[in-house]
Amino acid sequence: MLVDHIRFTLRMFLKDKFFTMLNILGLALGIGVGIILLLILQSDLTYDQHYINHERIYRLGAHYQITGIDEHIAYTARELGPVLKEEFPELQAFLPIKLMDRTLVKYEAKMDSRSFYEEDIIQSDQSYFKVFNHEFVAGDVNTCMNDNLSMVMTQSAAARYFGSGDPLDKILIISNEPRKVTAVIKDMPDNTHLRFDILLAGLPDFRGWQGVGTAPSSEKFWNPDVYLYLLAPQDYEPAEFYKKWPGIYVKYFKQTGDQVKGKYTPILEPLTSIHFKSESQDNEPHGNLSYLYSFAGVGLLIILLACINYMNLATAKAMGRAKEIGIKKIVGSGKRILVLSFLAESVFLSFISLALAIVMVFLALNSPSFAEIIGKNLLPDF
User: Fold this and answer.
1) What number of CA atoms fall less than 13 Å from residue 245's CA on the CB side?
2) C-alpha–C-alpha distance, residues 134 and 108, integer Å
3) What does the pLDDT look like over 313-342, one tens digit per residue?
4) Looking at residue 94, what is its pLDDT?
5) Lowest-pLDDT range, 129-143, 207-221, 275-289?
6) pTM (2 decimals)?
7) HEC profile of the chain
8) Cβ–Cβ < 8 Å for 171, 106
């Protein structure tokens, strides 16, 4: 019986091709636009959640209150990292990350020479891959940052300099310093607040000369220069961090604080809240939840309008099918058979529209111009 319903439905579609195509295209366009808007919503709401430890990572910023200055800043002093290692043994890692300025990077070989100005370069230390996980294409995660003159590249950055060749152990000149490529990782997804093309090893714990056993001066703690990420144990309560802070402030910050009549209040931000909820000044893009939910509402409205349009077209066609229903009743079709017949027709048309919508979505997402319009490289994760 199901085969008979499908055969009859196909015959009805072919009988009125214009009406059928109008119905399918209208519904497919609505579903396709709705899918793209929901993929944008999914991408933004899962910011930084691709990291395995995303629930345990925090970024340490500060609220600076000095005469004439009252700012929330996402940066902190790198010298604070070693201090926190001693004061907070329960925390598992302290990761400083320095954002580099626009830098000329050169590759010089006998038969090839290339150079590019790179915007997305960061510098860190051996603890980077203890905090953030990445998918490795080449190299060893355990040793790639051991040498202070080593570097890690993304796939797209490696392709710029080496094409399809093997990038491992190749030398790049960065800031007039030779750096060896020790690993290649996959490009990071767009929904990452801290993105880079090149990761340099060898970030010192202190700025300038630091004698053995010499504590940094108090004023250095008031001059932020890096992002500082903390890896906490499972179910860590940030209140514990704030509870210990007054003692650290008195020990390391108070001297300069009294001189400048300032106040330094730490801000511990969960990694997954940085994109939407951070009030700290940084160089990363931030989202707007109200705007995002409004965007999602528009997507649902478009799908609803597509459904209403479909029902209006079906209703307009219903009067012309009265004769068909009468003949079916004469030959013995009951109410149940008629309902199943129309449901099968609607479901079949809806599935065709859905399949066409998915094709439209894939074509749109693979178009570079579309990615430029929406400012995202969306992945078709259904």
Assistant:
1) 15
2) 28
3) 777 776 666 666 666 666 566 677 667 777
4) 93
5) 207-221
6) 0.82
7) CHHHHHHHHHHHHHHCHHHHHHHHHHHHHHHHHHHHHHHHHHHHHCCCCCCCCHHHEEEEEEEEEECCEEEEECCECCCHHHHHHHHCCCCCEEEEEEECCCEEEEEECCCCEEEEEECCEEECCCCHHHHCCCCEEEECCCCCCCCCCEEEEEHHHHHHHHCCCCCCCCEEEECCEEEEEEEEECCCCCCCCCCCCEEECCCCCCCCCCCCCCCCCHHHHCCCCEEEEEECCCCCCHHHHHHHHHHHHHHHHHHHHHHHCCEEEEEEEEHHHHHHHCCCECCCCCCCHHHHHHHHHHHHHHHHHHHHHHHHHHHHHHHHHHHHHHHHHHCCCCHHHHHHHHHHHHHHHHHHHHHHHHHHHHHHHCCHHHHHHHCCCCCCCC
8) no
Reply yes or no on whether the pLDDT at 212 is more than 50.
Answer: no
Burial classification of residue 195, based on how many CB atoms lie within 10 Å of its CB (0-12 exposed, 13-18 middle, 19 or more buried):
middle
Predicted local confidence at residue 220, as pLDDT? 87
| Contacts of residue 213, Cβ cutoff 8 Å, sequence gap at least 6 | none
**Is residue 97 scored above 90 in pLDDT?**
yes
Q: Is the pLDDT of residue 289 over 80?
A: yes
Separation CA 248–CA 254 (nearest Å): 9
Greatest alpha-carbon span in the chain: 101
Check pLDDT > 70 for residue 1. no
SS (H, E, C) 279-290: CCECCCCCCCHH
Sign of CA dihedral 199, 125, 206, 237: positive
- Look at residue 376 in the predicted model and tell me its pLDDT: 78
Using the predicted structure, report yes or no on whether residue 103 has a pLDDT greater than 50: yes
Tokens of 23: 């119905």
- CB within 8 Å of 319: residues ≥ 6 apart: none
- Summarize pLDDT for 301-316 with one digit per residue, the tens: 888 888 888 888 777 7
Range of weakest confidence among 16-20, 22-26, 139-143: 16-20
Alpha-carbon separation of residue 40 from 46, 50, 93, 294, 371 (angstroms): 10, 16, 33, 12, 11
